Amino acid sequence: MRKTIYTRLTGIALLGVFFCGCSVIVTAQGTVIKNGTTLKVTSGTTVVETIQMKLESGSALDNSGTIILKGNLVNQNGSQTNLGTGTFQFSGTSKQYISGQNLFNNVELNNSKGLNLTGNTQVNGTLTLTNGLITLGTSNLLLGPTASVAGTPSSSKMILASGTGELRKTWSANGLFTFPVGDSVNATTIEYSPVGITFTSGTYPAGNYIGVSLKNQAYNTGIYTGSYLNRYWVLTNTSASPITGFSADATFKYLDGDITGTESEIYCTKVAPDPVVTYAATDAPTNTLTAAALTSFSTFTGTKGGLVTSLTAFLEGPYNNGTMYTDLNDLGFIPLTQPYSGDPWYYTGTENVTSIPAGVVDWVLIDLRQAGSPGSATSGTSIAKRAAFLKSDGSIVDLNGSNVKFYNFAVTNNLYPVIIHRNHIPIMSNNAVPRTNGVYLYDYSTSQNKIYDGNGFGCIQLGTKWGMVAADADGDGGVFNSDLNIWRVDFGAVGYDRADFNLDGNVSNADRNIWRINFGSISLVP
Question: 261 and 372, same structural domain?
């Protein structure tokens, strides 16, 4: 026979409830479990507390039945209190609070006004989200290794994890868990943006957990501009007993209102800590970001680019007193599609535009290499390539004029970018390129020491600047007779031609004069 006990006023009988120790006081202010007392609710018993239930320091509560709270649960014990194997239902008509360090088995929230945590809380059984929001604030909610979430989480029944507190889950084996988290922009705008984590391998020590929190704002608009999400998620792997040797996939749900710019340009990006990694493009129809094969956890958002570069270089051919001529662009000769798909580069990128922006000198190809030193940064260490525009002021920009961005890889060593042009000798940085405020910045032109060229044959002084040597018509990294042979064949040609070393749109004697001066120059890029 089930028993239901209501504890509203002094003198109400609590049938089926056992008191051990000193005393339990039931007053108009609720139930108070005194120091040295254990309140035990037996299996099959339901206790309804309409005011509040308070555990004084040194008291205990052993619930094997069901406790329905219409008010707050106040725990004044200084350490975590195990509250038994039963169920606690929070179903008040105004906002409710749980204070102190509490270990529950089953918890159900059925209160449209919500539930606030003001102390770290653990649930080892089932957390049922029937109605209302659990606000973490600065507290953490830990779900044990066998804990599960019941109900149908949504913007009206979920966990608000936009403060410093985390929703945490302990793993005991491979599998999927969906963190039913979101944020509250204001009293009327509640946003559900869950995170799904699937472990496919790993070692799961006792005490492990993955924590999730989120923010309803852009991660860093100063770096990630154009197309991005006004939302980011922070995933942590406890340092005390971390999950190790793992591979995991993660999904992140966002809302249409989070999108700035063009959604199709957004990629799932691990933005902090270093290294920055950009994963797959967003699945726009489902508003889902995906990061596959994770081996660490970090901060994730949606951005247009992962690794951002700001590189500066000058070509000898069109150089003129600190700037470069844009004759090829002015004459309409620059192709709309990147020109490095053929011999000797065989670059497979599909960069293309509908028109060439003003101020562009020509296309260049950036080859990012990572190694311990520039001498070991061979072509085999290349991690990414991208065609971009070289502007008259020496800046190398993406197709839309912004800093050049690279996708789907991580920098795990020193970064040495190589700049390639179709008829100039390639150059590589002589130093590991530093990352400043999220951007890899490097100017090759400020001194000869900025360019890896050994004893000076792979670059050239251009007034106060240093730049790339012209007249490498065949792209083999040197200025030889083979380049002059190409000039002979193409002499008199007009347009976009490899033998047009000064980039004026004509293959003329002026180009041969450049070849003559530079004959014997050779790149020492490894």
Answer: no
Same domain, 262 and 191: yes
Residue 65 DSSP symbol: S
Task: Please provide residue 221's backbone torsions phi and psi, each rounded to the nearest 5 degrees.
Answer: -70, -15
- Rounded to two decimals, the pTM is 0.68
In three-state secondary structure terms, 394 is coil
pLDDT in tens, 88-114: 999 999 999 999 999 999 999 999 999
Residue 518 in 3-state DSSP? helix
Q: Tell me the per-residue pLDDT of 284-305, one tens digit each, with 9 for 90 and over.
A: 999 999 999 999 999 999 987 6
Strands (E), 77-203: 81-82, 87-90, 96-99, 102-104, 106-110, 115-118, 121-123, 126-135, 141-143, 148-151, 157-160, 167-169, 175-179, 181-184, 190-192, 195-203
Burial of 167-186, coded b for 16+ CB within 10 Å and e otherwise, reads bbbbbeeeeebebbbbbbee
- Name the residue type at position 455: N
Q: Are 317 and 424 in contact (CB under 8 A)?
A: yes
CA dist 304 → 122, 217, 402 (Å): 38, 16, 11
Same domain, 315 and 229: no
Asked if residue 174 is part of any domain, the answer here is: yes
State the total domains in the chain. 2
- Residue 121 CA to residue 105 CA, distance in Å, equals 11
Same-domain check for residues 405 and 484:
yes
465 located within any domain: yes
pLDDT at 455 over 70: no
Helix-strand-coil split of the chain, %, nearest 5: 10, 45, 45
Token duo for residue 96: 């409710």
Beta bridge partners of 352: 337
Residues spanned by the domain of 464: 307-518
